[in-house]
Amino acid sequence: MHVELHSDFQDDAEAQQAADLISACVHCGFCLPTCPTYLDTGDERDSPRGRIYLVKQLLEEGQATAITQRHLDRCLTCRSCETTCPSGMRYGALADIGRGMMETQAPRPAPERLLRTLLRKCLSRPTLFTGLVRIGQLFKPAIPGALGRKIPPRQKTGPVPSQIHARQVLILEGCAQKAATPATNQAAARVLDRLGISLQAVPGAGCCGAVDYHLGAHADGLKHMRRNIDAWWPAIEQGAEAVVSSATGCGSLLAEYGELLAGDPEYAERAAKISSLHTDLAAFLLQQDLSLLQTRAVRGEDKIALHIPCSQQHALQQPDTTREILRRAGFTLACTRDDHLCCGSAGTYSILQADTSERLRAQKIDALTGDSPAVIATANVGCQLHLGEAAEVPVKHWIELLDEATGP
Length: 408
Fold this sequence. Notes:
EC number: 1.1.99.14
Keywords: 4Fe-4S, Electron transport, Iron, Iron-sulfur, Metal-binding, Repeat, Transport
Shape: globular
Organism: Halioglobus japonicus
Protein name: Glycolate oxidase iron-sulfur subunit
Pfam families: CCG (PF02754), Fer4_8 (PF13183)
């Protein structure tokens, strides 16, 4: 698909990149039946192909409308379309560029700007967000409706390994996960400790940058990336062998640090190194000798419904890693359907596009629970919290299950 850039964008590097990305699209329509929002609305402007045309129109006409903004906002960035695209169209990168351009080309009403700014500033600051979550947990019984349901119960984290091993990996603690599901990384630390590996959380590292970047605030997102690189770099120089993420949504952005900071002469080389060292927790474990884990007998009737987040199967292109680990550990996996479709969480999407998000969640829970599982396991904090609001069975991170099955 050819793009004739408007004169206003002739010297705009992002606009040129967007035009190059669009050139890969052959408008075949294979993406339509894999797009959750198109399946939900039936409006082609809510499909990848439709949104590509809208961004193309922006690049060629030099102006945007609220209609373009609305349909870009409705995109989950699940990237299911990328998995099915025969021409390798990198739709997620185009959507991010389009959203960034829209923030300047079609300014939002003040209430929308305020809400999005509050979400970015609160979610991306772990200390602030943790404080807000703790206050919410304290007053949760008095908070009605949807807001009260979004406040996660406080978790018990268990003991922290005390032994320091020669092998060390860094962990992205993140922002939402550190506050809402701290049991995840504590379980990961115990499992890795049993394999002779220490999990190191580095002070100063925090939000991966996804909240800001995916909401079109690219400069702020890049600041978070640079801060993390600065925080991790001394440990990397001292021999840390990997940067591990236990939230696949964060991990999918870590994998792109090198690309997103390629034009920054101060950070480009280190960012590329971070991306090369990054690995998802499940992928990292599959590289280890898992026979060292003494797995207790797992009750066969307690079936696990495995939810594979979009970020894991479409962005990281690792749809089977978690399934393989749980199978090796002896868990019985429930039959599920429509595994490729998004649960509707998608970071801040569940807040900004609540109606669509709730419809997608209901469909996903039906698809996960048809085989009567005892628990739903997932690999991403946002999905875990979103599904946990409405599911009638517990929703846990899969590493918690592995920790329980291999612990003393």
